[in-house]
Design a protein that fits this description.
Elements: E1 7-13, E2 22-28, H1 46-59, E3 62-68, H2 70-76, H3 78-92, E4 99-103, E5 118-122, H4 125-128, H5 130-151, H6 159-162, H7 168-176
Parallel strand pairs: 1-4, 4-5
Antiparallel strand pairs: 1-2, 2-3
Helix pairs in contact: 1-5, 2-3
């Protein structure tokens, strides 16, 4: 691949939670403005993720964040909704990539949209590819911020605390009260209830 290739890393956050959107980010790093400390967002403390997210937004050649909401997750399924969010993030980039590296074993289909780049799926890419690590960090920090904001709209679920994941406290709350409009009806335990 040419040294001047624009490589976009793509990753998501929020496939597993019971509530909220799935968020994807696409990042084209600037090789002249390196960022030390990039890693899989799940391994970084929240303060370090926030610090790195600011550096990524300031130093990357291009970045974009997009999501699929609860309705899309329930109507498509979580995999297709994730791929949709990834497509949206890639199409929102202000600079077209020449090659895209996606965390996981599936790539979003963009052939009919004329992006004209090659794709590569990399299992555990958020650990081994800096651009994917950067995308992981942006997706995670964006989703966490969204869930913290939504906490005020849906009090009693403690969304700011668990971000919609199936913690014991979250599951206990769902046994006591009806799910919120953010809860994924296609996910267990909501499937077992008449919502």
């Amino acid at each position: 691949m040419r040294s001047r290739s624009r490589i976009a890393g793509v990753d998501e956050a929020g496939r597993g939670p019971l509530a909220g959107p799935v968020v994807a980010a696409a990042v084209i790093l600037n090789p002249r403005r390196r960022i030390r400390g990039l890693a899989d967002s799940k391994t970084l403390p929240p303060e370090e993720r926030e610090r790195l997210a600011g550096l990524i937004r300031a130093r990357a050649l291009a970045w974009a964040v997009a999501w699929a909401d609860r309705d899309e997750i329930d109507s498509l399924n979580i995999l297709e909704a994730t791929l949709l969010a990834m497509r949206r993030a890639l199409l929102a980039l202000p600079v077209c990539p020449t090659h895209v590296k996606v965390d996981g074993n599936r790539c979003p289909c963009l052939g009919d949209l004329g992006l004209g780049c090659t794709f590569e799926a990399i299992v555990d890419g958020d650990v081994s590819v800096a651009a994917i690590s950067a995308a992981s960090i942006l997706a995670k920090t964006c989703r966490d911020a969204m869930m913290c904001s939504l906490d005020a709209c849906y009090p009693g679920f403690e969304l700011a605390r668990h971000k919609g994941y199936a913690t014991q406290a979250h599951l206990k709350t769902l046994r006591r009260r009806r799910p919120s409009p953010l809860h994924r009806r296609s996910f267990s335990p909501m499937r077992r209830r008449s919502c």
